[in-house]
Design goal:
Rossmann fold, 4-stranded antiparallel β-sheet, 28% helix
Length: 316
């Protein structure tokens, strides 16, 4: 019987290949990093009570993968901290003055754990009327009538982006109530866009990167653009998109000014009272960036509202 013998060189190469395979098998699984986001619980249907939702009831999906949930804590007690900024477009019509009473009542009704800031959008930046404070009376007094002018570069999306970039570092939840018609009056770019203003996507990206939830309330602005169907509709689409992608809500009733903001503000108050802090293990990439995730639950009658993406630091 003929026997085949491996040459010494072939045996050496085979040994190296086998060692490489064993080394790969011995390597630990890819590391993960903890990531936190704010999730709002909402009931499907009226007249129901919010059921108890525990950590084991929460699922975080990333594509087909299920990520490990490490914390699910109600935003109350020592975890109730909230930085809430009320941002008003100075291009708003003077009819917004009728809503200041409701806004002041909303501010004064907030818990002590909520810090409130007030600012006005003009010239594509934010003019701060009141820095974050837990003195809600002072914050309410900082409200004023809008100037009825957008300034030289009236762009609500650049303004809210400016605000988020200047936001002080703090572990509190970050949320904005943005009152505007969403129309870009700056004319810095093309007069008409084929779709929604690209500045909306920039603001949305910054909001998701910084974990900021943006709620929007429609209020008609000044000038001829408010009567332009295309501009007005595109403005409403823009603020609705910004809210949806960041986990917030958008409120408007056609293109008419609201009789009262009270129902909108009551809904926002309910949202703030039903939020949880969700922490899960994400898989970092070589570069830091936004990753699409979907927090869900199988509890009947409950749905989650959260940002479309979460910021994940780079792998170390």
């Amino acid at each position: 019987m003929k026997r085949t013998r491996l040459a010494p060189k072939a045996l050496l190469l085979f040994s190296f290949a086998l060692a490489g395979v064993m080394s790969l098998r011995a390597q630990p699984a890819a590391s993960t990093v903890p990531v936190r986001m704010t999730v709002t619980l909402d009931l499907i249907g009226e007249g129901k009570r919010m059921p108890e939702v525990n950590r084991e009831d929460v699922i975080v999906k990333q594509g087909k993968d299920r990520l490990k949930v490490t914390e699910w804590a109600a935003a109350c007690g020592d975890r109730a901290g909230l930085d809430l900024f009320i941002l008003i477009d100075d291009a708003s019509d003077s009819s917004l003055g009728l809503q200041l009473k409701d806004l002041r009542a909303f501010i004064n009704a907030q818990p002590e754990s909520t810090s409130i800031g007030i600012g006005y959008m003009q010239n594509a930046v934010v003019s701060i009327a009141q820095d974050f404070t837990t003195d809600h009376t002072a914050a309410a007094k900082a409200l004023r009538l809008p100037l009825g002018s957008p300034g030289a570069y009236g762009n609500p999306y650049r303004s809210v982006t400016d605000l988020m970039k200047r936001w002080p570092e703090h572990p509190n939840r970050r949320e904005v109530i943005m009152i505007t018609d969403g129309i870009d009056r700056s004319h810095l770019g093309p007069r008409h866009f084929p779709g929604i203003n690209p500045e909306v996507d920039i603001a949305s990206t910054v909001a998701q990167r910084t974990g900021t939830i943006v709620h929007t309330i429609y209020a008609p602005g000044v000038g001829r653009l408010r009567y332009n169907f295309w501009e007005a509709t595109n403005g409403q689409n823009g603020i609705a998109k910004l809210s949806d992608e960041t986990g917030g809500e958008s409120f408007f009733l056609g293109r008419q000014p609201a009789v009262t903001f009270e129902p909108y503000l009551n809904q926002i108050a309910k949202i703030l009272e039903n939020q949880y802090l969700l922490t899960f293990e994400a898989k970092p990439a070589k570069k830091a960036g936004l990753q699409t995730v979907a927090p869900i639950t199988e509890i009947a009658g409950v749905e989650f509202a959260a940002a479309d993406n979460v910021w994940v630091p780079a792998a170390k």
